[in-house]
Amino acid sequence: MSFGDLKISEKLVPKNYMSLGVAAQRSKQRAFKELLEERKWPEHGWPDEHIEELVHQVAGLDSNNFGHNVGMGEREARIACKLVARRHYNFGHGIGRSGDLLEAQPKAAGSTLLANLTNSLLQQLIQMLGIRSCRCCFLVPVATGMTLTLCFQSLRKSRPLAKYVLWSRIDQKSCFKAITAAGLQPIIIAGTLLPEEKALITNVAAFEQQLAQLDPAQILCLYTTTSCFAPRNSDDIVAIAKLAANAGVPHVINNAYGLQCSKLTHQLEQAQRVGRVDYFVQSTDKNLMVPVGGAIVASFDEQSLQQVASTYAGRASSSQTLDVFMTLLSLGRDGYLRLVSERKQNFLYLRERLQEFAATHGERVPDTKMNGISLALTLETLSAIGITSLGAMLHTRGVSGVRVVPMGVNKSIDGYEFANFGAHHEDYKQPYLTVAAALGVTRPEIDKFFTVLDRCWTEYKKMKATSLDLSSTK
Amino acid sequence: MSFGDLKISEKLVPKNYMSLGVAAQRSKQRAFKELLEERKWPEHGWPDEHIEELVHQVAGLDSNNFGHNVGMGEREARIACKLVARRHYNFGHGIGRSGDLLEAQPKAAGSTLLANLTNSLLQQLIQMLGIRSCRCCFLVPVATGMTLTLCFQSLRKSRPLAKYVLWSRIDQKSCFKAITAAGLQPIIIAGTLLPEEKALITNVAAFEQQLAQLDPAQILCLYTTTSCFAPRNSDDIVAIAKLAANAGVPHVINNAYGLQCSKLTHQLEQAQRVGRVDYFVQSTDKNLMVPVGGAIVASFDEQSLQQVASTYAGRASSSQTLDVFMTLLSLGRDGYLRLVSERKQNFLYLRERLQEFAATHGERVPDTKMNGISLALTLETLSAIGITSLGAMLHTRGVSGVRVVPMGVNKSIDGYEFANFGAHHEDYKQPYLTVAAALGVTRPEIDKFFTVLDRCWTEYKKMKATSLDLSSTK
Amino acid sequence: MSFGDLKISEKLVPKNYMSLGVAAQRSKQRAFKELLEERKWPEHGWPDEHIEELVHQVAGLDSNNFGHNVGMGEREARIACKLVARRHYNFGHGIGRSGDLLEAQPKAAGSTLLANLTNSLLQQLIQMLGIRSCRCCFLVPVATGMTLTLCFQSLRKSRPLAKYVLWSRIDQKSCFKAITAAGLQPIIIAGTLLPEEKALITNVAAFEQQLAQLDPAQILCLYTTTSCFAPRNSDDIVAIAKLAANAGVPHVINNAYGLQCSKLTHQLEQAQRVGRVDYFVQSTDKNLMVPVGGAIVASFDEQSLQQVASTYAGRASSSQTLDVFMTLLSLGRDGYLRLVSERKQNFLYLRERLQEFAATHGERVPDTKMNGISLALTLETLSAIGITSLGAMLHTRGVSGVRVVPMGVNKSIDGYEFANFGAHHEDYKQPYLTVAAALGVTRPEIDKFFTVLDRCWTEYKKMKATSLDLSSTK
Amino acid sequence: MSFGDLKISEKLVPKNYMSLGVAAQRSKQRAFKELLEERKWPEHGWPDEHIEELVHQVAGLDSNNFGHNVGMGEREARIACKLVARRHYNFGHGIGRSGDLLEAQPKAAGSTLLANLTNSLLQQLIQMLGIRSCRCCFLVPVATGMTLTLCFQSLRKSRPLAKYVLWSRIDQKSCFKAITAAGLQPIIIAGTLLPEEKALITNVAAFEQQLAQLDPAQILCLYTTTSCFAPRNSDDIVAIAKLAANAGVPHVINNAYGLQCSKLTHQLEQAQRVGRVDYFVQSTDKNLMVPVGGAIVASFDEQSLQQVASTYAGRASSSQTLDVFMTLLSLGRDGYLRLVSERKQNFLYLRERLQEFAATHGERVPDTKMNGISLALTLETLSAIGITSLGAMLHTRGVSGVRVVPMGVNKSIDGYEFANFGAHHEDYKQPYLTVAAALGVTRPEIDKFFTVLDRCWTEYKKMKATSLDLSSTK
Question: Quick check: D395 and A82 CB within 8 A?
């Protein structure tokens, strides 16, 4: 509705008083138009009211929101609980159709529009962040692990003989389980340990060797990871991409929380330029600060991506799409860039303070140049037995997300053995902790972290001293 | 907070005026306690305010909602957009962990509690609806098709040689794609056409034959469907369950929208009693009137179900859980039973009116005794060419969900050919339309449907007559 | 924004899928247009989503909601707390200006429109309910008592010598205090007690007598009340209106909750036809089921009403206006009429059951023909001492709103003495209780009331018997 | 509900994961307890979720929110429209009773608590801002003008002969109409014009003279104003308070938006210390950034204030109370102080820039030391004819709140004549504009204002030059 088109009686409101309001409405409507017609991510964030208005308008295009819809099918998007309807802005039909996650729904023009527009904005996001060659992407309403599984399932369709995934080891279960969930066999390639830096990098030679030994047709893909916990570095995706290109084998990259880090996005662009990248997958919660549950699968080739969409069996939730759509409008391009730049500053600040702390306590911060998000701190001067209780101490005092990694834990996952699990490498020999400067962290949080760490450090030492005393007097 | 425990000054409110309010609060708190301690689905629906209060309280147990949380991890459930946070009641951590969809999250006691409690309520729902032996179930935040894929992937772990799925044909893409998405090979078993009834039933003998011919170790499972479009009937899951038991082969049932129909739930209970059922999967949107995007996988054996959960790679959205939780509290046991009973009445009414319509127009309603939701109407007296335009006519007039099925459409899906796709059988020879009486349909909708159908019927005939005239005069 | 006017790419959504959504949007926009251009109260209630959309659009016309407003005044409707802004849909400017409650605000076209449109809808409501000659009305964001004070203050401007208000006694404090708050002197005219009916009616002769005795210029107005607690009847406003007309003295009617009762609205129309009515005032909470805090002042003459508006010093809250606006749209004409007709049915049911109860217990229901909302029940057979504890008993058991009126209470208000306060007349000699069938009461509530009443009645008798026993044995 | 008191099964969530959540809940509950038991305004603002939780809990104490309330009265706070109920958090009963605005309601313990607690917090606010002797205050749900009327009506009860109000002229209608609305006669005392400063101050001598001439019993009160548009200064309330004390005549102060300015609050405290102040009234919207519609009446004597409350006829809206309550919790003491200090900085910045602008354009900023909010700029160098169009120009360009005051406008209000209305004094001879630095204004707004002003200034001059040309060529 446009007030400018209505003949509103002077009895309701004088014409000249209306004029400014009409102008303000027009400027809002221009913004709507630009978004819907040109599919352009707005430069500046929108106020909440405009976002909600647009979302409501779009939801009104779905048949379950028509005044007098007669629903004679088995699925008519009726919503029993008003609170549920409200929190979904009356979207009920989900996205996709039984054949394809990207297919339009005849009953749900609004949901269809929402999904496609969000995917279009996401592509602009990815390009803005440095991956300029990205041709297309779409939001999958399952998290990163399952989305990687989906990519593998999709690749299998065109590589019917393939059963192996060559995987650069990273000790996060879901990365690994993404392979077994698809019914494929991982070939685990341990990283290379740099003794000086106390850091891990990709063992490119080992990949090469495996490629030489195996029948390429039996290899589904090479599978690397960018964002990860220090002291592991991002995989050398550029080198692996070259191998993939040469061998004619697909290459899938787990870029879980890598969008927020320009170091990683530039590597991605570079990998594509000089080698082969079939899919790269990133989490929506970690990169866009929405609730857990979605991932973006992206590609440099539209056809390939379409295959992933058509592998997905059936319709899917539009809830994640809605979260991402609203968040992108709320931030705007400049708002997102501000977040990214603040994160970078905070990372530098965290590193500096961590190095100071290490220096004071006779520890080290492993030198992980290719990790722009996570940092490790060695725990050599602390008693190694029961070291994980240091993590519990921090958690109890309100610090979440610190991982204390003990040594010598062996773990079996889906029948595969991992020696020294947690440390990404069987030969990493000292315990450490990791912290991250992720999107949204604030400087006061970092400051408070060090206050608490300091307190816990002292307490832990004292506790151990006491228990040693106790045991020595026994 | 309990007002009864506070010493509130008489200057704020006289004690005797408070007492009734305190009593009312106590009764609400008793309801909360009963739900949380005994995990009992309330008999009567709760008012919106109580639901929201509980949900907020539970969300307050997650670390991202602690006043002074310091988040030093890579995933701290920060939510950038206030509107998004609000619509998720500040839940951000999702459910599950990287290893398992049912694992508890240290950072998110609230999300964990929400997920487990919802699963517990869902089990009570399934049992109340007649599947009394159901031992456990859980909500998967992907829709039915993908959940079936997940079941197949899970079965594969204990049946490493299996590659075939014996599937009773049903012409819904996502049912079929659930198999191929898992990288398995379907063996398609066409139903038996009953000429008298003009209906389709399961070809049990053909299943038997396949079981005899194939190596059981190569068979992943038998895969049947209950709820479906008429004139297909529900599969004879009791007979197939017996075959499965005898052959020692798993049996997975797609019970997509079957929970709402007691005929089907009783069959399910019976199938388990006399045979083998490993998993049965149902949609949350169709059975619980929530937005699309979730499914319930259930089993008669806790161990088996646990395997499905641990197959899921990574964390997942808690949005679907929240929808289901709120809906179950909003309806209460009696509210849900009322919906189910109204649906049944509406189904009988729809059938009666459809039979009248058929009688008037020289058509038939195929006799599908084992289909308590969907009904078909033959379209023999109408011109078959361009018959799908009848569906478009209805849709344009506000009737959604009617499927008009033409004959002779052949379709290829993932490399498999389906003759006469849409009709579930290559020999079904006349076009028909289907309508359903699903949960939430109302009598006025049914009445309006017949008004519109009548109008479109006439119009279609007239249109065809005209075009025939035109062609005859050519 | 109109989707029909946008060129939305087929990449976002296919054109034919959009068309139904566009049609649905158009029908909503027609409804908006009709409301805003023709100021017509919709026949049927609107869905919540449409109401909120319109309210947001209208709020967007106020300057505080313009994107780049620069506020250099002392009052710019900035809202500090987001929750407050949200609950007011970002309306902040209130209504009226310093000179006049009905004046338009240059900064707030939206608030102005909202206020005027609401007043227009209210006039249609009043006319629909039978007061067809009503020329205009407006919502005052203070409750009935203060609105009556405002009417008196307004009348005083044109009657500078007036100091008396001739008032037909009703024992509700705010009715009386409306006079003294304006600094005027009440002349209290007791009603006439009908011994047979045990009811009270207006003492018209006493009014006549006072008019004869006093200088008309010193009389500000005659002041009557329609809706009231039984056994008082509505005042004979037709007779008093005739006296007012003959004497050339204004007549103000307190119609607090009388709009919901056609008996009273027809009297009002009649009073105007044959006599003089200057203002009639009704509560918004009681007649429209909104939170307490507003009243509607109405008149048969536009000029007179304008004077009331211009008496109000300053701007006022628009919160009440918003409540009424949303409620009127939510109900629609037919929704409101349904409420009114249900109330009438419930009144008849309550009377019938009360008469049965009275018959059973040897009591009476006073015969109050001119009271269509409240009913009394004598309490002659119960011990009169401590009779109010019967009310407390009911309240404790969840029954609110029953008044138990004891005899012989004398009260002084603002220096005026009321003998037998609460009973409206000094000679009413037996205690009684009152109950009402007000808008929104339900039949199950009435049934439960009688269950509780019966239990309390027995308990009270038993308690009194015990205490008598005790005292007799002393 | 306290999670710590519940026995929650480990099946729902592991105990150790719960413990942090329980601790977080406990800290929230401590905050609730402190507020409710000690009635202490929190030092730091609360998150939205806590505010809403508390508000919902308090609303749950009102009988309309009891699960099985049976409402048999004529006013049971039923709310017809769900949206309305939601926006009021289900509060429906309003505040006060028919006799008194501060009386507790038996049916509404929650509303009663809300009102009294809010008044208690407001008193702490007033004291914190420097008026330490303030003994009590309460929120009146009508704006400043009507609240002043209420004070006058209240004073009249104890001064039955009084008919005059001695008023220091200020050209804002509602200040003046507050007198006439109460049926009283203003005696208008023009200020003193300081030619050097081009500013206005109180004419104390004229007050003294009037007090000497009139019978004190006929004077209701002296009536002064603090916050006002420059070039008027705040009245010399200290001097007038002394006169009031000496003459034994009440003194009422309109402190409309004066709470935000420490200069004025200190004067108020001082006035009370050395003289007499009966009531001082301030707007909630201007001082607390809530929507228009409430005022705070405060006093140094509890008894006096009680009289105002008991003058109010009937129940009143609790909507304003809710806004203020939520805002105070949202800001906290430190949040409010931050706003106040920012405002002061912005005032100084605005003055500095205005003085620069004046210097550049040959104008002056009148020297108004006793006005810490509003500033004037003379418009001597511009053509005086049609000068108000300069204001319209600014408004059209998005600057609201600037008043352009032309000379020589005469106005009659309620029969009283004001020469040179708008300028507060008949002898003020040059046009000027006023701007304010009110609570919430931002520095970018001020900067943008000057950009726009500069542009409009040039344009206005050009326009006038052109029209002069045109007229000279005629």
Answer: no
